[in-house]
């Protein structure tokens, strides 16, 4: 099937098999390997991207379902190689260790902050419960999101 979509602001046209998952389209066809695959079964959130502004687990979305949509991956949220405020806050608060969950965590947090710019700690924890981290214990991640909501890492 032929699909046309926008990925990180760039128009993309491609012929894809109907069974191709969005995460594999992003990684293997477009080379956007910042989006990770941790489980392939909708459990870990490492594959989280924004689809028309809302976070989705791209291992659960077919590439053909993104036809006509706008996709944003971790590669699309920084400008000129500079970390955006949320990414900088993750760095500041040690919200990552191995980094495998981090792109998905940042994309999920981006979506969360768009929906709720002033979340409580509990709302952050609930909002990110679909994203698993094996390393950090989550506190640094939560602190990073809360600081970003309060005005960004400085
Ligand atoms: S790889 Fe998609 S949720 Fe784990
Ligand atoms: S930083 Fe290693 S899984 Fe989250």
What can you tell me about this protein's structure?
- The protein is α+β, with helices and mostly antiparallel strands and 154 residues long.
- It has five helices and five strands; from the N terminus they run ββαβββαααα.
- The protein has a five-stranded mixed β-sheet, covered by helices on one side.
- Helix 2 runs antiparallel to helix 5.
- The longest helix has 14 residues.
- The mean pLDDT is 96.
- Bound molecules: FE2/S2 (inorganic) cluster (2 copies).
- The site of one FE2/S2 (inorganic) cluster has 12 residues, from loops.
Assembly state (oligomeric): single chain
Structural class: alpha+beta
Name the bound molecules.
FE2/S2 (inorganic) cluster
Strand order of the largest sheet: 2-1-5-3-4
The helicity comes to: 25-40%
Q: How large a portion of the residues is in β-strands, by DSSP E?
A: 5-15%
Alpha carbon gap, first and last residue? 46 Å
How would you sum up the major sheet?
A: 5 strands, mixed
Cα-atom radius of gyration: 15 Å
Number of helices: 5
Count every beta strand, where a strand is a DSSP E run of 2 or more residues. Answer: 5
Could you list the spans in which at least 5 consecutive residues all have pLDDT below 50? none
Q: What is the global morphology?
A: globular
Roughly what is the average pLDDT, rounded to an integer?
96
The helix/strand order is EEHEEEHHHH
């Amino acid at each position: 099937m032929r699909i046309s979509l926008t990925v990180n602001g760039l128009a993309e046209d491609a012929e894809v098999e109907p069974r191709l998952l969005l995460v594999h389209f992003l990684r293997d066809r477009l080379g956007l390997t910042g989006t990770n695959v941790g489980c392939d079964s909708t459990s870990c959130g490492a594959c989280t991207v924004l689809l028309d502004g809302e976070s989705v687990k791209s291992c659960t979305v077919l590439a053909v379902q993104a036809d006509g949509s706008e996709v944003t991956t971790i590669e699309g949220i920084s400008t000129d190689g500079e970390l955006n405020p949320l990414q900088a806050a993750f760095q500041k608060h040690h919200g990552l260790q191995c980094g495998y969950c981090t792109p998905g965590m940042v994309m999920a947090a981006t979506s969360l902050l768009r929906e709720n710019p002033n979340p409580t700690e509990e709302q952050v924890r609930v909002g990110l419960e679909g994203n698993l981290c094996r390393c950090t214990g989550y506190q640094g991640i939560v602190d990073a999101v809360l600081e970003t909501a309060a005005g960004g890492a400085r």
